[in-house]
Design a protein that fits this description.
A two-stranded antiparallel ribbon has the order 1-2. It is mostly helical. It has helices at residues 30-49, 61-85, 94-135, 140-158, 162-165, 167-176, 187-215, 233-252, 260-272, 289-333, and strands at 337-340, 346-349.
Length: 352
Amino acid sequence: MSRPQEPHRPFFPFGNPFRMISPKGSVLSPQLLAVLHAFEVTLGERLKKLMPKSNDEILSLSWMTLAMQMLSETHNDIKTLIADLDLPVHDWDEKWIDVYLDISVKLLDICIAFSSELSRLNQGNLLLQCALHKLNSSSSKQFARAQSSLDGWKKHIDSRNPRIEKCDGILDNLVGSLDLPKVKKSPKGKVLMQAMYGVKVQTVFVCSVFAAAFSGSTKKLIDLDVAEIYTWAPEFKSLQNLVNEEVRVRFSSGRFTVLKELEAVDSAVKELYPIIPDVVDPIETELDLKTVEQLGRATEKLSEGLDLLAKGVDGFFQVVLSGRDALLSNLRSGGTVYDRGSGGNIGVQAVN
C-alpha cells in the first residue's frame, strides 16, 4: 500500500467549513437542495448504523470494520454528488482542487499507518499460534518454549508503532487549519463544500477513534462540535458522545487495551501464563485445557477480525486513491465533466 508523493497543500483553504454555509449571495435551486438533502440524509443513516446496541460493541473489530465500510461508502457518495452537480472541472476553483487533493493525501497516510498496525498485530498472532502448538505437546521443554512465546507476544503487543504516533498530527492538521481564505461563491460550490464538510466530520471521527484505539491513548480522540443546522448533526453527536466517552472510560480503568478481541486474548494469556511453570511432568500434571481452548478461540477470533478490518482499510485506501487519480487524470486530459464510472468511481469524459 503506497501513495503518490506530492507536496502537501493547506487543508480546506476555502474558509472555515465548520461554519454554516451562508444563505447570502447565490441561492440554491430546488434541484441543488434536493441533491444536498439526499446526500445528508444518507450520511445520517450511516451514522445511525454505527450506533452500537451496547457498549460492548464499541471498538470490537466487527464495529471497526463496519465504521470503515461506512466511511468508504460516504467517500463514494461525494464522487456521486460531484457527478450529480454536473460541475465541470474548468469551473472548479483551484482551491477546491487543492482541498480534494490535500484531503486524499492525508487520508492515504492514515490508511498506511492503520494497515501497518494491523499487520503488526497479526505478527503477534504468529507467536500465539506457536505457543498454542507447543502447549498441545507432551514435552515439558515445549511447555517452557510456549511460555517464551507468550513472553514474546506480550513484549510485541506492548511496543508502539511510530506510524500510529504520527496520526494525531495529521488529524490535528485536518481540524486545526480552518481559518483560511474563502473562494468565490457559487450555488454548486456551496453544495460541494457543505457535503465535503460532512465527509470530513465522519472521517475525522472514525480515524481519531481508530488512532486512539491503536495507540492506547485518549489524546488522539477528537471531539467535534457540529452545528444543529445539519440534518445529520443529532446522529453524529449521539454517536460521538457514546463512543468517545466509552473509550475514555476504558482507558481510565487501566485496561490493557480497548480493542475487545485483543483484550479477550490478553485475559486468556494472563490466566494461562502462571500455570505453565507448575507443569513439571505433562503426563502426570494436567494443564488447564479449558484455558488453552479459550486462548485458541480468542486467538482465532482476533485473527479473523484483524483480517476483515485490514480488508476494510485497504478498501477505503482504494476508494480515496481512485477518486484522487480520476481528478488528476481529468486535469491532465482536459476533461470537463465528472461522470459515474464502474464500481462507484469517478469517470472522465474528455472534451471533443
